[in-house]
Amino acid sequence: EKLFSGFSKTRNNLSVIDELLLYWNLSDTDRVLDELEEALLVSDFGPKITIKIVENLRQDILAGKLKSGSEIKEALKKNVLDLLSIKGSKTELQLGFRKPAVIMIIGVNGGGKTTSLGKLAYRLKNGGAKILFAAGDTFRAAASDQLEIWAERTGCEIVVAETEKAKASAVLSKAVKRGKELGYDIVLCDTSGRLHTNYRLMEELISCKKAVAKVVTGAPNEILLVLDGTTGLNMLPQAREFNDVVGVTGLVLTKLDGSARGGCVVSVVDELGIPVKFVGVGEGVEDLQPFDAEAFVNAIFM
Ligand code: GDP
């Protein structure tokens, strides 16, 4: 339900398709496909994906494989679903067997990093995990205060920098050591979020990664990149840069509730080959949903 209501704006954008297909007949194919193309573009599926889908449908219609509007609609959904499935990749968190599992949350400021970390903590804690926060955004003074509020809200412990000049990697290392000593299941690491073009930030993320790997073999288990869904396809260059430098294991797409550009989910997966693990569909503590491709397709196309 949350996912369905979260995607209402994108669904409204795409609802024109239903009307088109209701009255579709073979001689009308070009016009209908042109309008379908327009609806997909407006919803930020991106030109590459849009052309791929529309041409697949055209071929199947001309080959007589799709004979009614409802068959075309089902084929459209199937096309999107296929584009979302990356072979061998898992949309569930992969936390390994060593304790604590370490999840690094990265992304530019304002994208929803801290909020997503808090919501993720709530979800994992409800699943029975003992969670420790690491306040690794040592760059922005208010970041650690904001994270402390989330720690309190979710009833989790937090490790913060001891001095103003403390390095992010030192905070993360300390948190993971504490996690190991005190039997925590998961350490959720916040990181600072200057622009992805900032060389120092990228260096810092690399040293954070190395620092946690020194404490627990195999850590970090997940590096989740948080991307602002309202920016649609503009998130792509940013995501590529983070992935090239740090190696992203999963995406968290936020603010999709306020966006009519939900189609960008498909482009991002197709372009980056990284699975979307969670989507943010609101500001509440329960508004982070594990990404389920089938539920997503049903939420945007009905
Ligand atoms: P950070 O700078 O990346 O840590 O971003 P924040 O977590 O502080 O989030 C920035 C703003 O986006 C805050 O006002 C959040 O409440 C809001 N936000 C985060 N995720 C979502 C979401 O999924 N939906 C909506 N509507 N707002 C969100």
TrEMBL record:
GO molecular function list: GTP binding; GTPase activity; signal recognition particle binding
UniProt superkingdom: Eukaryota
GO cellular component, one term: cytoplasm
UniProt subcellular location: Membrane
GO BP annotations, alphabetical order: SRP-dependent cotranslational protein targeting to membrane
Keyword Membrane appears in the UniProt entry: yes
Ranges where the SRP54-type proteins GTP-binding domain occurs: 275-288
Keywords: GTP-binding, Membrane, Nucleotide-binding, Receptor
Membrane protein topology class: Peripheral membrane protein
Family the UniProt entry places it in: Belongs to the GTP-binding SRP family.
Name this polypeptide is given: SRP54-type proteins GTP-binding domain-containing protein
Source species: Vicia faba (Broad bean)
